[in-house]
Backbone:
């Protein structure tokens, strides 16, 4: 498909904006459809349509809805085709013309199981064939539908929002903040590097992956980089020499996203309509029956509760002799508190005027969201490290539940903007990535649960219950809606 064709399509849509929703749905559908996603430049068209939508002030929620619906339906059709072509994917036209892509999709599915439906949506080489392969390999349709909905909810913002923001900026003649373009260039370059080293190598992040072996071979030729490689590699006997590439990818990627998000939030007005829309939606949703539960969720993520959890975890780890892990947990708690305080003080963004007594500190980023993200993701990394590689996603999914609940409680109670919560999440993930990368060289023996960890959990539960009991009357009053 030529660039002239894309230019003509953009010009026609600019003259007929009422067709933007149809164009977004159709493009997302074709991008997710088996084999068709290989032939069309779906990413470029989605960016162009999203930019036009931002330029004509089409509601962002509507753009995201049609993109997600198209992606969901495209994957469902591909899944159904896979069921029809079960056992003969390599013999049915036009699938027979792409045997290497089909084989790559099958290997990817066998390696990652059901979670490959989520991962595959973001991986260019296998995106159009993973639903097809899942259907052909008889993945239960209820399970596929759950993964399909979850992945579409994450895919739509990632692919749509950049183009939408560009279109909004062009329409409003926005003056970018200082150093916007250098920071944007460095951040996008970092994300591109991570994409090439992670996704293009099909997430083979272990010590036996192609990416790791290729990097190890070249880094070993240079004394300085070879020392760096050895310094941060895991010292666990069973996996000696494993460099923390996943942790560094998480750290650098979320740092780049946080910088972009922070610049857009604090230096422009592009995200304010979205903040207002989310705040309005939650204000309509608020109901007295739900208030106690939401207040409870937000109180258990207060600073004293999170610091108590970090301190007790450090004591348990130190008692067992895991001194490196204990130091890194405490370091994560201190760094999170310091960075959040500095950013709130420096940005001084006012909070929503929705509760009786909103906190006096700045809004960006959400400290509750950042704190609970660091705590839960660090705990998840310790637990998942001792499990089978293919099962680790279940641990991370389980530990992500408190993060989502606390984040929603901050929005529901009206004490944070949506941009604050996203900023806190990205900041928390970045801190976790750096802490895990640093800890890898101290990861000598498996962490096994015993009575000390059980005692720490029980002590934290008692401290939390006492804190909630003491704080409850004040919290209910403070978080009462105006």
Residues:
């Amino acid at each position: 498909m030529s660039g002239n064709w894309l230019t003509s399509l953009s010009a026609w849509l600019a003259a007929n904006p009422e067709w933007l929703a149809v164009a977004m749905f159709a493009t997302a559908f074709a991008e997710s459809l088996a084999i068709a996603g290989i032939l069309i430049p779906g990413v470029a068209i989605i960016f162009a349509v999203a930019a036009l939508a931002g330029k004509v002030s089409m509601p962002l929620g509507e753009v995201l809805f049609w993109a997600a619906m198209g992606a969901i339906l495209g994957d469902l059709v591909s899944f159904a085709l896979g069921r029809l072509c079960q056992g003969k994917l390599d013999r049915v036209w036009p699938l027979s013309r792409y045997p290497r892509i089909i084989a790559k999709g099958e290997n990817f599915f066998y390696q990652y199981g059901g979670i490959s439906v989520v991962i595959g949506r973001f991986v260019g080489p296998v995106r159009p064939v993973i639903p097809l392969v899942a259907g052909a390999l008889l993945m239960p349709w209820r399970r596929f539908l759950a993964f399909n909905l979850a992945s579409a909810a994450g895919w739509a913002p990632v692919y749509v929002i950049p183009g939408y923001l560009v279109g909004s900026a062009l329409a409003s003649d926005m003056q970018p903040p200082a150093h916007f373009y250098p920071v944007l260039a460095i951040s996008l370059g970092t994300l591109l590097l991570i994409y090439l080293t992670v996704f293009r190598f099909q997430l083979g992040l272990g010590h036996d992956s192609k990416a790791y072996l290729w990097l190890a071979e070249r880094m070993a030729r240079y004394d300085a980089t070879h020392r760096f490689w050895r310094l941060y590699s895991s010292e666990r006997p069973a996996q000696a020499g494993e460099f923390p590439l996943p942790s560094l990818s998480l750290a650098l990627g979320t740092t780049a996203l946080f910088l972009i998000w922070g610049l857009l939030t604090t230096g422009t007005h592009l995200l304010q309509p979205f903040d207002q829309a989310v705040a309005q939606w939650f204000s309509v949703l608020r109901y007295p029956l739900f208030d106690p539960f939401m207040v409870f969720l937000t109180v258990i993520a207060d600073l004293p509760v999170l610091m108590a959890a970090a301190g007790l975890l450090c004591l348990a780890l130190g008692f067992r002799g895991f001194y490196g892990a204990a130091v890194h947990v405490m370091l994560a708690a201190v760094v999170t508190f310091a960075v959040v305080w500095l950013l709130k003080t420096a940005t001084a963004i006012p909070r929503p005027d929705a509760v009786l007594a909103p906190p006096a500190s700045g809004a960006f980023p959400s400290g509750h969201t950042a704190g609970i993200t660091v705590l839960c993701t660090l705990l998840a990394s310790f637990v998942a490290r001792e499990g089978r590689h293919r099962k680790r996603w279940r641990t991370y999914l389980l530990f992500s539940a408190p993060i989502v609940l606390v984040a929603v409680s901050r929005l529901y109670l009206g004490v944070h903007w949506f941009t604050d919560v996203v900023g806190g999440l990205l900041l928390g993930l970045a801190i976790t990535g750096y802490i895990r990368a640093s800890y890898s060289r101290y990861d000598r023996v498996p962490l096994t649960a015993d009575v000390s960890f059980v005692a720490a959990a029980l002590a934290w539960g008692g401290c939390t219950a006492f804190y909630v009991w003491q704080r409850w009357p004040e919290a209910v009053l403070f978080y009462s809606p105006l």
In short: The mean pLDDT is 79. Residues 75 and 100 are 20 Å apart (CA to CA). DSSP finds 21 helices and no strands in the chain.
